[in-house]
């Protein structure tokens, strides 16, 4: 894929440099110190670039209705985030957590702003299928590096508490999960695509995050169904063979982990017993507070940014309850409007088949995560780039 384009062309391509800069930002703690001035400068430049692209897209005509929902959602988070600085200052003191107030806006900006830039670059003919294919492979490498980094940090934290455990639930499961949708761009190189998908699913399983494993399973089912529906004859036989081989390897990996890992076995037993890591109690506490303790104003407009940690020891681990607590019913209406704009965009008939399928995959994985995790802030450059690319019908576009 790189033969058609010289390496120098990639290094001059603004979309490639933009995505690489995000990957470099996510490599802090691996290539350079976390929270360093270098990381802060990268993030600042990326946010400013994305805001500039967002302003340009707002003024564009005939853009997908999706952006109407995204604009209002981002405006809500921005308003509440700025209000947090006015009321709480630079630090938010929660029941048990103390966090910098800037983390609120930072989390949503990192997740949502790259969608504008990747849409813009695709529309401008900069983010082409070839460029994005190279980026997708880069995502796999960065995702694996993040897995080992977070694994090491979690084990070091346990060791500091006197634990001798050598296995943990690794939050990087959601990081690697986010890479999976971007691999749809490798459809013209099926062997490479299948290998990359297999690698990502392998690390999602190793991370032992049950929600991420569920979403990876949804992706595999959708991916296999899509491949089957668009092929026939010998190609369909090859797809069936690849699916059966993948299923065999997957079951072999799981069987090996069950046999060799007590912790993996424990996680499976907890799942079968309906254990939800305390989420049922958390969800009930948040919902009961909203129904019984919140006054009318808080029910309508919420408790403000970071309201969840001001009321309870932790975040809601559910986007709907997080928004309900922070922004009240107003926030829920805006979030529902965002989802409605998303579904209307998918249903519109102007997208090429692969672009429409990519949008559908992203939406289903996103909406699934909103119910037991943080679907919004689990959106990172690995999958937000795919969203922007597909919204601009990038699969239809040709390389220049």
Structure description:
The protein has 400 residues and is mostly helical. The chain is built from 17 helices and 2 strands. The chain has helices spanning 7-11, 14-26, 37-58, 66-88, 102-123, 129-160, 172-179, 190-207, 210-229, 233-260, 262-272, 279-293, 296-301, 307-311, 319-347, 353-370, 381-391; strands at residues 91-93, 98-100. Helix 2 crosses helix 3 (37-58). The protein is globular and about 65 Å long. The model has no long low-confidence stretch (mean pLDDT 90).
Helix content: over 70%
What oligomeric state best describes the polypeptide chains here?
single chain
User: How many strands in all?
Assistant: 2
In order across it, which strands form the biggest sheet? 1-2
H-E string: HHHHEEHHHHHHHHHHHHH
- Mean pLDDT value: 90
Number of helices, counting only DSSP H or I runs of 4 residues or more: 17
Q: Ends: how far apart?
A: 13 Å
| Gross geometry | globular
The biggest beta sheet reads: 2 strands, antiparallel
The radius of gyration is: 21 Å
The residue ranges in which pLDDT falls below 50 over 5 or more consecutive positions are none
Structural class: mainly alpha
Residue share in β-strands: under 5%
What descriptors fit this protein?
400 residues, mainly alpha, two-stranded antiparallel ribbon, 17 helices
């Amino acid at each position: 894929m790189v033969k058609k384009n010289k390496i120098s062309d990639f290094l001059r391509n603004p979309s490639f440099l933009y995505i690489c800069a995000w990957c470099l930002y996510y490599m802090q703690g691996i290539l350079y110190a976390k929270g360093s001035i270098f990381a802060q400068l990268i993030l600042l430049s990326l946010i400013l670039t994305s805001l500039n692209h967002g302003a340009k897209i707002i003024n564009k005509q005939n853009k997908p209705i999706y952006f109407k929902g995204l604009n209002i959602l981002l405006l809500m988070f921005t308003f509440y985030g700025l209000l947090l600085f006015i009321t709480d200052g630079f630090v938010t003191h929660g029941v048990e957590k103390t966090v910098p107030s800037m983390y609120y806006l930072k989390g949503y900006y990192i997740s949502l702003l790259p969608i504008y830039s990747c849409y813009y670059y695709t529309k401008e003919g900069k983010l082409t299928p070839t460029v994005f294919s190279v980026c997708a492979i880069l995502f796999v490498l960065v995702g694996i590096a993040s897995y080992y980094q977070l694994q090491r940090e979690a084990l070091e934290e346990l060791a500091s508490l006197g634990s001798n455990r050598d296995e943990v639930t690794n939050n990087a499961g959601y990081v690697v999960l986010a890479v999976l949708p971007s691999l749809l761009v490798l459809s013209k190189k099926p062997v490479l695509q299948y290998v990359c998908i297999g690698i990502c699913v392998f690390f999602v399983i190793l991370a032992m995050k049950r929600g991420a494993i569920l979403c990876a399973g949804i992706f595999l089912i959708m991916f296999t169904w899509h491949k089957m529906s668009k092929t026939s004859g010998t190609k369909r036989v090859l797809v069936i063979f690849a699916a059966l081989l993948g299923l065999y390897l997957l079951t072999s990996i799981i069987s090996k982990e069950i046999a060799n890992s007590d912790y993996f076995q424990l996680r499976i037993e907890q799942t079968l017993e309906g254990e939800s890591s305390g989420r049922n109690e958390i969800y009930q506490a948040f919902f009961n507070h909203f129904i019984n303790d919140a006054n009318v104003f808080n029910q309508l407009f919420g408790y403000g940014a970071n309201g969840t940690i001001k009321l309870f020891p932790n975040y809601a681990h559910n986007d709907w309850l997080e928004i309900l607590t922070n922004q009240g019913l107003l926030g829920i209406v805006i979030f529902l409007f965002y989802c409605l704009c998303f579904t209307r965009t998918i249903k519109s008939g102007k997208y090429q088949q692969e672009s429409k399928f990519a949008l559908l995959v992203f939406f289903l994985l996103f909406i699934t995560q909103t119910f037991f995790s943080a679907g919004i802030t689990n959106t990172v450059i690995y999958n937000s780039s795919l969203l922007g690319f597909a919204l601009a019908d990038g699969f239809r576009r040709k390389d220049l």
